[in-house]
Write a structure and sequence with these properties.
EC 2.7.4.1; Polyphosphate kinase; eight-stranded mixed beta sheet; ATP binding; polyphosphate kinase activity; alpha/beta; Endonuclease, Chain A; 37% helix; 3 domains; 27 strands
Length: 699
C-alpha cells in the first residue's frame, strides 16, 4: 500500500446492509429445499424454516424500520449508508422475490415429488363423493363447534386479529329482497386443529388443508346469507418488545405486561392467496390494517408453511427413507471411556462438540452436582432452555436439598420471555436465588460454576459454552463447550457471578474476557498483534467462525489486517456486513457460509500468532449488540491437544464444498465448486462420521 492514497475503510460501498444480508442468508436456507442431496421431507422442512425465519424478520427487523419511518427518522445506517425507507424498499423487492421462489419450489418441486411417494395434498373440489361426506362430517363435528364468525358493522368493528393467525374474509349478501348492502365477516381458522387433515383413501395418503375445508363449507356458517366470495389471509404484527427498565420496579411484571401487547402490535405484512382476492376486499383490508400495498405478499399455494413442521413429522411415520438417517449423539471424545465427569475434569479439560457429541454429559454434570452431598453451590446463567428442561429440574432439586443455587435467568431473551418468566417463578419457589441480569443489558453468557468441598479442600468446576443450556436445540445446533477445574477459571467464574449478583467493581479476570466492551477491545488487540507479527514473520493468519458479523469497528480492523497481508478466513452462517475480495480493501479475506442439516452456532476465534496459536470460544458473535449491549464471555482454550482438535475442525469447515457458499465482493453468495465426486466434502457429515469412528475405536 506504500505510495498509494489511503483507502477510506468506512466507505459504504465496502459493506453489506445488515437486513439485506440476512435475506441473503434466508435465501441459502431456501436453496436447501431444492437440493436433491437432501431427503424429500427434509427439503420440506427447509421450506418451513424459511417461512418461520421470515415471520421473525418481519415481526422484529421490518417492524423496527417501520417504527423509525413513522418517527420521522431518516438518517442512513452507519455501514452501508441506507436510510430506513431505502432499506424497506429494498427489503420489499428482495422478500417478494424469495417468496415467489418459495411458492415455485413447493408447487413445482415438492408436491410433485410427494405424489411420487404416494402423498397427495388436494382441494375439497378434487375429492370423491365419499371423501366429501367425510369432510362434511369432520366440519360439522370438529370444526364448526370451535368457529367464531365475527361480523363487521356499525356496532361490531373490524376485529383485532392475532399475530400470525390465518383468517378468512367473507363477503355476504342477505337473501331477503329488501336487505341492506353486502356484509363483511371474518372467520379465524382454528389454530387448535391440525392444518393438514388426512382423508380416507384406498390407494394413497390424501390430505386437505383446514382452511380449504372451512372455505368449502363456509355457507354452513352463514345460513340465511349468500356467500359472494371468501379469501384466506394472514397478518404479521410488530412483535418487538419495548422494555422500559428505567423506573421498572419489577422487571418480571414489566416483561409480563409487554408480552400481552405483542399479540396486538401494528400490522407489518399481509399475506393473501394469489389471484383469489377481490380488489375491493384487498383495499378494505389494507385500509383497516393501515399498511401499504408493497406490504402485501401473494402466495401461490398454502399461506404460512410453518405447518410443514408437524406435517413432515406425520409423513415420516407413514413412510421410511424420506428423512435424514437417524443419528445418535456419541459420548464426547474426552469421556469415551465413560469416566466420571468430575474426576476426569480434575485430570484434564473436557471439550464438547454438540450435536455430534451428546449434550447429556452436561445435563448429568449439573444433575450429579445437585445430588452430591459434597457440592456446596451451583451457579449458572440461563438464556434459552427447553420446555421440559432436565437442567431446571436439577437446579430445583439442588435448592430443595439445601445447596446454594444461584440462577441468572435472562427474561429479555427474544420470543423466550414467557418461557423464562415461568422458569424464574418455579426456581424462586424451589428456593433458588434468581437474578435477572444487569440494567439495560441482556446476559447472553453460557457459564456454570459448581463448588464442592472434599477432604477439607474447595474444588471449583466451570462449564463454558458457545450455546444455550437447552437439551432440545443441542441436538440441532452445532456448539462447543468446555469443562475445566483449573483454579484460575474457577476464580474468574466466582468473580463473574458475584459481579452480576452483588455490588462490586468490575473484576480483573485471569482468563475470561467479558462484554460489554472488553471483548471488542480484546479482538482489536488480537488483530493488531497479528498485524505486527505478520510484518515480522510474514505468517499472519486469522480464522473466525461465528453466526453473524456486523460490528463496523471490527470489520474495519479486519480490513486493515487484510491490507497488511494477514490471511483471514471467516465462516459465517448468517449476516455478514463485511465484503471480501475488494482490491485494496479486503483481498486477503475469504467468507464462506455453511447451511446444512445442523444449524452452525459455535463461535471460534483463532489467531496464529507465529505458532503460539491463540484460540478462543465465545457466546458472542462479532455483532455490535454482542460487543456493547450484552453480557458475554470470551474464553481461551489453553490445552494444546484441544487446540489441535479445534484447528482441525476449522480446516474441515473451510474445505466444505457440499454445503458451503462463498461470498463475492458484491455481497452475493455462490456454491463452492467441486470438480470430482470423490472430492465432495460435507463438513457436517464428516463430523458426524468422525464421532461414530471415535466411539467404534473405543469399543
Amino acid at each position: 500500500m506504500s505510495g498509494q492514497a489511503a483507502v477510506d475503510l468506512a466507505n459504504p460501498m465496502y459493506y453489506n446492509n445488515r437486513e439485506l444480508s440476512w435475506l441473503n442468508f434466508n435465501k441459502r436456507v431456501l436453496e436447501e429445499s431444492s437440493d436433491l442431496n437432501n431427503p424429500l421431507l427434509e427439503r420440506m422442512k427447509f421450506l418451513a424454516i424459511f417461512s418461520s425465519n421470515m415471520d421473525e424478520f418481519f415481526m422484529v427487523r421490518v417492524a423496527g424500520l417501520k417504527d423509525q419511518v413513522k418517527a420521522g427518522f431518516n438518517k442512513p445506517e452507519n455501514k452501508a449508508g441506507l436510510t430506513p425507507k431505502q432499506q424497506l424498499n429494498r427489503i420489499s423487492i428482495k422478500a417478494h422475490e424469495l417468496v415467489s421462489v418459495q411458492n415455485r419450489v413447493l408447487i413445482e418441486e415438492i408436491l410433485p415429488s410427494l405424489e411420487q411417494e404416494g402423498f397427495y395434498l388436494k382441494k375439497p373440489e378434487d375429492m370423491t363423493k365419499d371423501q366429501l361426506l367425510f369432510l362434511k362430517d369432520y366440519f360439522d363435528n370438529e370444526v364448526f363447534p370451535v368457529l367464531t364468525p365475527m361480523a363487521i358493522d356499525a356496532y361490531r368493528p373490524f376485529p383485532m386479529l392475532l399475530n400470525k393467525s390465518l383468517n378468512l374474509v367473507v363477503m355476504l349478501e342477505n337473501d331477503e329482497p329488501d336487505a341492506e348492502m353486502d356484509r363483511v365477516a371474518i372467520v379465524q381458522v382454528p389454530g387448535v386443529l391440525d392444518r393438514a387433515i388426512e382423508v380416507p383413501s384406498e390407494k394413497n395418503n390424501t390430505f386437505v388443508l383446514l382452511e380449504d375445508v372451512l372455505e368449502y363449507f363456509i355457507d354452513r356458517v352463514f345460513q340465511g346469507y349468500t356467500v359472494k366470495n371468501v379469501n384466506t389471509f394472514r397478518i404479521t404484527r410488530n412483535a418487538d418488545m419495548e422494555i422500559h427498565e428505567e423506573g421498572a420496579r419489577d422487571l418480571l411484571l414489566e416483561i409480563e405486561k409487554e408480552l400481552k401487547k405483542r399479540k396486538w402490535g401494528a400490522a407489518v405484512r399481509l399475506e393473501i392467496k394469489s389471484q383469489d382476492m377481490d380488489q375491493h376486499v384487498l383495499d378494505y383490508l389494507l385500509e383497516e390494517l393501515e399498511i401499504h400495498y408493497k406490504d402485501v405478499y401473494e402466495i401461490d399455494g398454502p399461506i404460512d408453511l410453518t405447518f410443514l413442521f408437524p406435517f413432515t413429522k406425520k409423513l415420516s411415520t407413514l413412510r421410511e427413507g424420506l428423512t435424514y438417517e437417524t443419528f445418535i449423539p456419541q459420548l464426547p471424545e474426552d469421556l469415551a471411556s465413560r469416566e466420571d465427569i468430575f474426576e476426569k475434569t480434575l485430570q484434564q479439560d473436557v471439550l464438547f462438540y454438540h450435536p455430534y457429541e451428546s449434550f447429556m454429559p452436561v445435563v448429568d454434570f449439573i444433575s450429579q452436582a445437585a445430588d452430591d452431598p459434597s457440592v456446596l453451590a451451583i451457579k449458572m446463567t440461563l438464556y434459552r432452555v427447553s420446555g421440559d428442561s432436565p437442567i431446571i429440574e436439577s437446579l430445583t432439586r439442588a435448592a430443595e436439598k439445601g445447596k446454594q443455587v444461584t440462577v441468572l435467568v435472562e427474561l429479555k431473551a427474544r420470543f423466550d420471555e414467557e418461557n423464562n418468566v415461568q422458569w424464574a417463578k418455579e426456581l424462586e419457589k424451589a428456593g433458588c436465588h434468581v437474578i435477572y441480569g444487569m440494567h439495560n443489558l441482556k446476559t447472553h453468557s453460557k457459564i456454570t460454576l459448581v463448588v464442592r468441598k472434599r477432604a477439607g479442600q474447595i474444588e471449583r468446576f466451570v462449564h463454558l459454552g458457545t450455546g444455550n443450556y437447552n437439551d432440545a436445540t443441542a441436538k440441532l445446533y452445532t456448539d462447543h463447550g468446555l469443562i475445566t477445574s483449573k483454579k484460575e477459571f474457577g476464580v474468574d467464574a466466582t468473580n463473574f457471578f458475584n459481579y452480576l449478583s452483588g455490588y462490586m467493581n468490575k473484576p480483573k479476570y485471569n482468563h475470561l474476557v467479558v462484554a460489554p466492551f472488553d471483548i471488542q477491545d480484546a479482538f482489536i488487540k488480537l488483530i493488531d498483534e497479528e498485524i505486527d507479527i505478520h510484518k515480522k514473520h510474514g505468517n499472519g493468519r486469522i480464522i473466525a467462525k461465528m453466526n453473524s458479523l456486523t460490528d463496523k469497528r471490527l470489520i474495519m480492523k479486519l480490513y486493515e489486517a487484510s491490507n497488511a497481508g494477514v490471511q483471514i478466513d471467516c465462516i459465517i452462517r448468517g449476516i455478514c456486513c463485511m465484503r471480501p475480495g475488494i482490491p485494496g480493501v479486503s483481498e486477503n479475506i475469504r467468507v464462506i457460509s455453511i447451511v446444512g442439516r445442523f444449524l452452525e452456532h459455535s463461535r471460534i476465534y483463532y489467531f496464529h500468532h507465529n505458532g503460539e496459536r491463540k484460540i478462543y470460544l465465545s457466546s458472542a458473535d462479532m455483532m455490535t449488540r454482542n460487543m456493547i449491549k450484552r453480557v458475554e464471555i470470551l474464553f481461551p482454550i489453553v490445552d494444546d491437544s484441544l487446540k489441535d482438535r479445534l484447528i482441525d475442525f476449522l480446516h474441515l469447515q473451510m474445505s466444505d464444498n457440499a454445503k458451503a457458499r462463498y461470498q463475492d465482493n458484491e455481497g452475493n453468495y455462490h456454491y463452492v465448486a467441486h470438480e470430482q465426486e470423490d472430492l465432495y466434502i460435507d463438513s457436517q457429515l464428516e463430523s458426524l462420521n468422525a464421532a461414530y469412528r471415535i466411539r467404534e475405536d473405543e469399543e
